[in-house]
Write a structure and sequence with these properties.
Layout lengths: L1 H14 L4 H12 L34 H26 L18 H9 L1 H25 L22 H32 L7
Helix pairs in contact: 3-6
Length: 205
């Protein structure tokens, strides 16, 4: 009986002792620093992703699947690349079709409220919602059903940029898209802010 009690106490104590493997992993993590933020530890979940420089100061990758984060980053980057171009083009007078007289003189900033009143933004919201729903199915299959799909990959390459390219060349193209998308997210935030503050035409000075 005494031996059984003693064995159970040793077992309970061992449960609180750190394992050697975990300790070695922690020591490695502590020694590895982020390339982008050298004063912070390297976020291990970023490893293996194109464009990884260890930038995750809020450690989102610790509790959100990295594939989901990369999908979101690519989607927002692509939207902002189109949005910056569209925003500036409108303020430079580009129109897909002639506007009714009531809408002449609108800028990219003032057009939003005018189109909300007119009702066009409701239709835009509807079709974007349909597109988001369809893409969400693909994302869920990627995350939970191991579909083999890579984040942001919709098989869309009409010009053939990736055709007959090596893995290294494909990775280089993916990195270019990622960097341009990150720049576009900052650029679109800046151009909207400047346009609202100055209420003037491009280049909003």
């Amino acid at each position: 009986m005494k031996l059984a009690i003693l064995a159970s106490l040793f077992g309970a104590a061992a449960a609180f002792a750190p394992s050697t493997t975990q300790g070695a992993r922690s020591a490695t993590a502590l020694n590895e620093k982020s390339q982008a933020l050298p004063f912070l530890e390297y976020p291990e979940n970023l490893k293996g992703y194109v464009g990884d420089v260890g930038f995750d100061p809020f450690r989102f990758s610790d509790f959100v699947p990295m594939d989901f984060l990369r999908e979101a980053e690519l989607k927002h980057g692509r939207i902002c690349m189109l949005a910056w171009l569209g925003f500036v083009a409108v303020d430079n007078g580009f129109r897909i079709f002639p506007l009714p007289e009531a809408y002449e003189g609108l800028t990219a900033v003032t057009a939003h409220d005018a189109l909300v009143k007119q009702g066009a933004m409701g239709q835009l919201f509807l079709w974007i919602g349909v597109a988001e729903t369809i893409s969400t199915v693909a994302v869920m299959q990627m995350l939970y059903e191991d579909s083999g799909r890579k984040p942001g990959d919709f098989g869309l390459d009409p010009v053939g940029f990736l055709k007959n390219k090596s893995d290294a060349e494909i990775e280089r193209m993916q990195l270019r898209e990622l960097k341009n998308g990150r720049l576009a997210m900052l650029a679109f935030s800046g151009v909207v802010t400047q346009a609202v503050l100055t209420q003037g035409p491009f280049p909003y000075v």
